[in-house]
Amino acid sequence: MKNIKYIITIAVSIFALTFANAQSTSDTNFRKPVSETLKKIETVFNVTINDDRGLLKGKELDYADWRIEPGNLAISLTNILAPFELMYFKQPDGTYIIRKYENHKVSVDKGKERLFYLESLYSTKEQWEKRKTELKACMITSFGLDKAPPTPKSKPLLTPKRIYKDYSVENIALEILPGVYATGSIYKPYPLNKKAAVILTPDGHFGDGRYRKDEQYRCAIMAKMGAIVVSYDLFAWGESLLQFPEETHRNSIASTVQVLTGIRFLDYLATVKNADMSRVGVTGGSGGGSHTMFLAALDDRIKVSAPVVMVSSHFSGGCPCESGRGIHLCGNGTNNAEISAMMAPKPQLIVSDGKDWTLAVPELEFPFIQRTYELYGKKDLVENAHFAKEGHDFGVSKRMALYPFMAKYLNLDLNKVKNDKGEIDESACVIETYDKLYVFGNKAENLPKNALKDINKLYEMFGEKNLKVYEVKK
Questions:
Q1: Which residue from 102, 252, 303, 368 has the fewest beta carbons nearer than 10 Å?
Q2: Contacting residues for 55 by C-beta, under 8 A, at least 6 apart
Q3: From CA 334, how far away is CA 410, in angstroms rounded?
Q4: pTM, rounded to two decimals
Q5: What is the DSSP string of 388-407?
Q6: What is the structure's pLDDT at 193?
Q7: Do residues 192 and 218 make contact, with C-beta atoms less than 8 angstroms apart?
Q8: Neighbour count for residue 366 (Cβ, 10 Å)
Q9: What pLDDT score was predicted for residue 212?
């Protein structure tokens, strides 16, 4: 009886498929629901496709089955999904999921393909140097740095120092553009009576911004080790919100301002007594990791780089403050792995984890970057600290990987932060409250009189027009 039911079920299925095909003719432009064509693709290629977000519901396509390319799953899926601005991602278990198209994100497989393509472009140091020069020039133009107004001649605004064990902290507001103030804190060794290395720490999109504990620990420890460390706010984030509303953080000009902030902080630090500009490092996580790579690629003064949880061939940053200026279109297409490789042959630590877009770094992006270092005979100057069981953060294990690396290549004293057991000890660092890390506080009336609050005028400084219109807060 069971066999009869099974035969009947199969017969009904075949009849239904035959009937559907019979109705799919040139009279209807062979129009079919996309979900049906994807089921056929599953059968043809023996794969599983998961529309777990219901993105295909109600969608139909002319000439749907004709778009299947025998023997080529990737082209078949692209042909079906692209008309709806959808794309696919292959999962570790081999299944395929459907997602909306995003310019900053592709599947790991596509990231791998792009790296193979990039490798085909250069096999010698000379070929790479030529491409690197082209990439750098394009990035400068894309960011609009070539159109940036000169740095205002105003003096930085500094708060009184707070003195702690072996380090000090003072807050700073630096006018990087006419009326645009970048705010942050400077951590210094105390007492500071000799030349000290310099380290920039661009902030990322973690909760509490630069005021969070892990960033304060990081800055304090590196200051204790002998570095002048500058932690600064993202654009329209932290104290920058006094000038520009939160929604403008997702304007493309945010990425320009953030890169320029790092460059102009380095310009300022070059004037600071005892700052050793021959020993300059940069490190940041997430969005700060993006800007770590950007600064290392663009500013030759940087000698040591440590991008954290951001180096990826298949993800270039979900915020326009990272990817909004189209720099990843440079060189007919690049990605963060190649931008990271622009640091070669200078020391670089790439920190990755197993639960975000850096999950494949040890097998994919790191070997690609190592290859570029090998062109200089400096393969050992790039390292990867991978934490397979960890997620997207700048947690203690990642900081413990960072400190020895910075100490080694910036000639810092790691022993100054070790306890009696020989372990790096962060417990002596003082975690300050928000109000202590402010320059102006949380009231806009404390800003300088010339403080700019109009995003449109900021665009105008670079000869551009803001195409995202927001109500300007008075």
A1: 102
A2: 84, 86, 98, 99, 100
A3: 29
A4: 0.88
A5: TT--SS--HHHHHHHHHHHH
A6: 92
A7: no
A8: 21
A9: 94
Structural element, H or E, at residue 96: strand 96-100
| Closest C-alpha to 305, from 233, 199, 385 | 199
| 325 has a pLDDT exceeding 80 | yes
Q: How many helices (H) and strands (E) does the chain have?
A: 14, 15
- Residue owning tokens 């010339």: 450
Q: Let me know: does 210 contact 186? Beta carbons within 8 Å.
A: no
State the average pLDDT over residues 180-206.
95
C-alpha closest to that of 346 among 309, 378, 312, 307: 378
How far out from the chain centre does Cα 326 lie?
13
What is the spatial distance between Cα 307 and Cα 274, in angstroms, rounded to a whole number?
A: 26
189: β partners: 167
Burial label, 168 (beta-carbon count in 10 A; 0-12, 13-18, 19+): middle
Token look-up 């070790």 returns 418
* Alpha helices, H only, 248-395: 253-269, 287-298, 320-323, 336-341, 365-374
pLDDT single digits (tens) 335-366 = 999 999 999 999 999 999 999 999 999 999 99
Question: Is residue 240 within 8 Å of 176, Cβ to Cβ?
Answer: no
> What's the CA gap between 369 and 365, in Å, rounded?
6
Contacts of 197 (CB under 8 A, 6+ apart): 226, 227, 228, 276, 279, 280, 281, 410, 411, 412
126 CB neighbour count, 10 Å cutoff: 9
**Phi and psi, residue 259, nearest 5°:** -65, -45
Alpha-carbon span 270 to 264, nearest angstrom: 10
Which of 8, 405, 2 lies closest to 225 in space, CA to CA?
A: 405
Calpha distance 80→364 (Å, rounded): 28
In terms of Cα–Cα distance, which of 426, 383, 427 is closest to 401? 383
Tens of pLDDT, residues 130-158? 999 999 999 999 999 999 999 999 999 99
The CA-atom distances, in angstroms, between 236 and each of 181, 207, 291, 459 are 11, 14, 16, 14
Please tell me which residue, 443 or 129, carries the higher pLDDT value.
129
Choose among 450, 458, 347, 360: nearest CA to 407: 347
Q: How many CB atoms lie within 10 A of CB 144?
A: 21
Evaluated on CA atoms 109, 110, 111, 112, the torsion sign reads: positive
- Render pLDDT for 458-472 as a digit per residue (tens, 0 to 9): 999 999 999 875 444
Q: Which of 23, 77, 76 is nearest to 50 (CA)?
A: 77
Give dist(CA 329, CA 422) in Å, integer. 47
